[in-house]
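hi support,

uploading two proteins for the ticket. first:
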Amino acid sequence: MMEEKLHKEPKKKVKDQAPIIEIKDLHKTFGHDNTILKGVNLILNKDENLVVLGRSGSGKSVTIKCIVGLIEPDKGEIKVFDENVLNISKSELNAIRVRIGFLFQSGALYDSMSVRENLAFTLSKHKRDLTEDEIEKEVMEALENVGLAEAVDKMPSELSGGMRKRIGLARTLILKPEIILYDEPTTGLDTITSREISELILDIKNKQKTSSIIITHDMACAKMTADRIIVLKDGVIHAEGTYEELEKDEDEWVRSFFQ
């Protein structure tokens, strides 16, 4: 693969519409010499599922954590909803964060709270003017969207791994985000449950018109959910295309993900 392809500018699929996320020349080093990102460029278009592939340590999770301010990059530009999130106030960043859902690998539920309390806490924290009845309605709607209304009174310890992922997703959906960042949504799940989560990701996109970045090692998930795929290698975007295009890529390293 030619060298210039390693540092190519992000491709814009929608000519007359600004990307919902645009990252330019993103760099991040941890410590003195652990350089993870070396100039990442990517865009996320509206109503698109973008899958990010790469070996462990390639910077996939670091990239999406930079988007929401969980990690501060050393250099670069990140535009979300056409706002440079690296140059805005904390209150402005928080206003943007409410519009972004982040599904962590673990689901990140509060173990001391029931499912209802987990979702209600998230909602009341960001929408303080809601009544108890309104909160209850939103909680049940979010659980119905992930097919787990019957789990409303369960504790996280009573849930399977797949159920925890679904509840974590319900907690993300309750704020009705425009963007969802999925960090390894099917990790640790069996094949059938992984497929159910992948189908849920597609269903959410179609019903709620979300735009998503999906970090995954699960090629079945990538094939099912991706409108477009980018591959990270050595801190930059190494390849980009549809699942079918990358599966037939001339680069042996890229094809290795699909074997």
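and the second one:
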Amino acid sequence: MYNLLIIEDDKDLADAMRKLLSKWGYHAVVCEDFEHIMKSFEAAEPHIVLMDINIPAFDGFYWCKKIREVSSVPIVFVSSRESSMDIVMAMNNGGDDYIQKPFDSHVLVAKLQAIIRRTYEYRTVETQLIECNQVILNLNDTKLYYGEACLDLTKNEFRTLKTLMENKGKVVSRESLMKQLWNDDLYVNENTLTVNMNRLRKKLEDIGVGDFIHTKKGMGYIIP
């Protein structure tokens, strides 16, 4: 369930929005303390913020900037102000979308669903891929892709590349790699890692990926 924070000083409208969003399966919270909006934000831990511009104390632009100092959560302005300058200011202050009042409830829900897909659901899919220097490792099928080439990896080859690619630009020690590969075997010869690394490098070279994994003598391996 996604948490939504509604920052709207019209109590009737705020309650109507809360009820509408609850019907669609969202957990909507209405901010009631306009002097301390950041406390409400921290308590709600929202996935999306719905923000009016004309609210007591400071306006929505101010609070949008304050939220942006600590979070990249999507912020949707919902306001009766309709000038192009208001829309520009909303976007320039960190807003992600702008909906004018009065709004169609179906349009509001559709926009929120689109933002959720872009921000959270698509991101989940994207994180299943790791890319380094045009080399792509698919965490789902454990295959490596480079240009038009596709490389089937053994379990240890996959673990080796995953560890090195996740630490791109950092040296990964031989001890750390050995623990990743043979954590349950206390008697693996250290030369086994060298043999595995040489085989992996040869497979990479065969599909045109040369000089991908560098050796740092006395330290370990790195993908620069």
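thanks. also noticed: Residues 3-126 form a domain with the Rossmann fold fold (CATH 3.40.50.2300).
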